[in-house]
Amino acid sequence: MAPLPIAVIDYGVGNLFSLGAALEAVGARWHLVDAGEPGAATRLAEADGLLLPGVGAFAPAMERLLESGVAGGLLRLAGEGMPILGICLGFQLLFEGSEEGAPDPAHPLPGLGLLPGIVRRLPPGDPVPHVGWNAVFWEGEPPAPLRGARPGEPFYFVHAYAAGVEGAGAGPGPDGLRLAWAEYNGFRMAAVAARGNLWGSQFHPEKSGAAGLAFLGRFAGRCGC
Questions:
Q1: How far apart are CA 103 and CA 106, in angstroms?
Q2: Catalytic annotation on 225?
């Protein structure tokens, strides 16, 4: 049986068609699934992998996922082992919560809770949002999405919030979680996270040249697409 396409979740945020063009460039088949349409959860379950993109603010994005029922579908499919990749805001939504949009940063807004940690605003210094190329590093074996990449490989970032990486981030974390990081204004932030079938990147692979295409190609291979 031919592999089913990667389902790119359309929930009203994200640069969907440049991402789709990048997937096509690595030979992956994909289709959009509109989170607001009836039967969206069924269409997601029929895919071989899910991609959660995102450009914008945490609170309205999380609200759309909850109202559409896609949040529950994502949690169920993640638990069933379906490959899932979150990009930029889509990556941030995978964490426990974010201070973006929270009336009190001490009480972050809840996220999907698939990854441990809280997304916080980047500290002052160089301009925020952080826009441009930045080197990505890790210790020991690279996270699965970066296998074949070299430490210090640059990727393209556009964001004002990120999850932090405690200490050096060396070795597997809870339940085999592996992280790669970049630094901005003295803040070591999660650039990539991977745990089993769950992958995420703070950078935009579709804007990151050959290294970004290789990243997407690894995800497509993980999905069998």
A1: 9
A2: no
pLDDT score recorded for residue 29: 92
Catalytic-labelled residue, pool 153, 204, 223, 225 = 204
Least confident of 6-15, 25-34, 141-150, 200-209: 6-15
Which two structure tokens, joined as six digits, stand for 119? 């997304």
In this structure, the number of other CB atoms found within 10 A of the CB of residue 37 comes to 11
Spell out where the chain has E strands.
6-10, 30-34, 49-52, 84-87, 95-98, 109-110, 115-121, 130-136, 153-159, 161-163, 178-184, 187-195, 198-201
**Residue 170 pLDDT:** 46
Q: List, as one string, the DSSP characters of 113-163.
A: -SEEEEEEEPPSSS-SSEEEEEEEB-SSSPPGGGTT--TTEEEEEEESEEE
**Residue in 100, 153, 206, 223 annotated catalytic:** 206
* Structure tokens given for 178: 């592996």
Provide the 8-state DSSP code for 164: B
Q: Which residues contact 155 (CB under 8 A, 6 or more apart)?
A: 133, 134, 136, 182, 191, 201, 203, 204, 205, 208, 211, 212, 215
How close are the terminal C-alpha atoms of the chain, in Å? 12
pTM of the predicted protein model: 0.93
Active site (annotated) includes residue 88: yes
Q: 3-state DSSP helix/strand/coil percent for the chain, to nearest 5?
A: 30, 30, 40
130 flagged as catalytic: no
- Domains of the chain are 6-223 (3.40.50.880)
